[in-house]
Amino acid sequence: MGGPISRQGEYTVRWRPSRWDGRNKNTPQAPPWPADASVEGRLIAWRVGRGKYKQWLYLFTTTSLPAEEVVALYGRRWQIETDLRSLSKR
Prior knowledge:
Elements: E1 9-15, E2 39-48, E3 55-61, H1 67-88
Antiparallel strand pairs: 1-2, 2-3
């Protein structure tokens, strides 16, 4: 990206695996990624929250939905996850 993202918007990106991707303590060597492995998509940088509590949200997507819709869908997903977490504590 060439530096920090400080403006809300969309950025076209292509992810390529590094030599560390796919490694964990049980598989010390990297998986055999094809030389041309990559995923093309969009990085959405969005400010969420209210007032002084606004934070940056960064989402990667391969969909063609408008950025506002992707952020709204993620917000719904977040609510579902927090609801499920509160149910499991009962």
